Amino acid sequence: MAVCNLGCPFPSSFARKSTPFSRKRSSCRSTILCLGLNHSAKFRRDYTSVMIVPTGVGASIGGYAGDAIPVARTLSSVVDCLISHPNVLNAAMLYWPMPNTLYVEGYALDRFAEGLWALQPVHQNRVGLVLDAGIEEDLRLRHLQVADAARASLGLNVVEYVVTDTPLEVEMWVDPKGGQSTGRIRHPDSLLRAVRNLVNRSRVNAIAVVGRFPDEDIEETDDYRQGLGVDILAGVEAVISHLVVREFCIPCAHAPALSPPSLCPSLCPKSAAEELGYTFLPCVLAGLINAPQYLEMNSASLEKGCILASDVDSVILPIDACGGDGALAFARNKRTKPLIIAVEENVTVLDDTPDNLGIEAVKVANYWEAIGVVAAHKAGVNPHSLRRDGIKNLQGSSLKPANGYAVSTAKVVL
């Protein structure tokens, strides 16, 4: 309730007059004091949305250099809490801080969706940096300068770096059957030893990994730089971060170390963020600094104010990328199933559509519509009511059993 004080105090000259009927009217300047509603009072719980664009599947939006960030920025302005992953939020030298957005690695996001892990928001993490021993000296120095710049110019808490005892030897390829990029590292134990060293010695609770990637085949690189095809780096990047998160249960993200590309005069804007400098590390450090911690689901995680899978209200996915572990876990959650929104404009090399998987989903043409559906859902409005003839006549069901006797629905009043 707004309270307005419109009172006008009597002027002192009026009190001194001997007659109350003086023609001289003193000026009265009204003072207005309005006390508005206390908007901090909450009558609904926070609305939480998850945005997923799988890695290395050639997504039309989100398959390149941070080109899904505009969607995430817009969505974060509508919801109370947005949960997404590095493939959506990373843009090499570019990033965009969103205070209500949680940066969750893909393996952890799957475990969260399955109800096995909870997300604990933090103020900041202690970030450790792992550098592949296979990185050349000059390129290693470039990445260390990025870390120092992040500490000095952004105030990020990057506490220590370590070089692996053996080159990781990253290998990458495109799956000939599915068409998505994938790969492996030949020496995963070297990576795990480096991470364990940082965790035990420096008490880091988030890890940035920089692996030396082979300079890609020029034809595949040219396609990607023109906004076509699959990001050949992305699949094995996910393999690397999954390995660390699975072993240590802490946030992790990866940045590839590559030789600087030659100048391309006809570069696609979707790929341009990866052409700006010598490293992709800035966005990784910015994302990890306040990435939520991962806790196994138990009574302690409930007491620590964690976000649970049951808190998720909606999940937004590309139309044909609904078959991942996390997406299926959300879609098949019978108790607290979120609204699944499939975006038709965002296509990938996959064929995991809601129809093919038997998933109930709201299909929308593009992310404009998707965000409109989320806004309606958050407001408690049936999204179909926003469409012409979207609401049909209410249907009834018969309670008459097969034996011909009606079932009484009357309640006994005690």
Structure explained in plain terms:
InterPro entries: DUF3326. This protein is an alpha/beta fold and 414 residues long. The protein has a domain at 120-296: 3-Layer(aba) Sandwich (Rossmann fold), CATH 3.40.50. Helices cover 29% and strands 17% of the residues. It has helices at 12-16, 69-78, 86-89, 106-113, 137-153, 188-202, 218-225, 234-248, 281-288, 299-303, 325-331, 354-357, 367-378; strands at 3-4, 34-35, 48-51, 81-84, 101-103, 117-120, 127-131, 158-163, 170-174, 181-185, 206-212, 252-257, 293-296, 312-318, 339-343, 362-364. The strands form five sheets. A six-stranded parallel beta sheet has the order 5-4-3-14-15-16, sandwiched between helices. Helix 2 (69-78) runs parallel beside helix 13 and helix 5 (137-153) packs across helix 9.
Blueprint (SSEs and pairs):
Layout: E1 3-4, H1 12-16, E2 34-35, E3 48-51, H2 69-78, E4 81-84, H3 86-89, E5 101-103, H4 106-113, E6 117-120, E7 127-131, H5 137-153, E8 158-163, E9 170-174, E10 181-185, H6 188-202, E11 206-212, H7 218-225, H8 234-248, E12 252-257, H9 281-288, E13 293-296, H10 299-303, E14 312-318, H11 325-331, E15 339-343, H12 354-357, E16 362-364, H13 367-378
Parallel strand pairs: 3-4, 3-14, 4-5, 7-8, 7-11, 11-12, 14-15, 15-16
Antiparallel strand pairs: 1-2, 6-13, 9-10
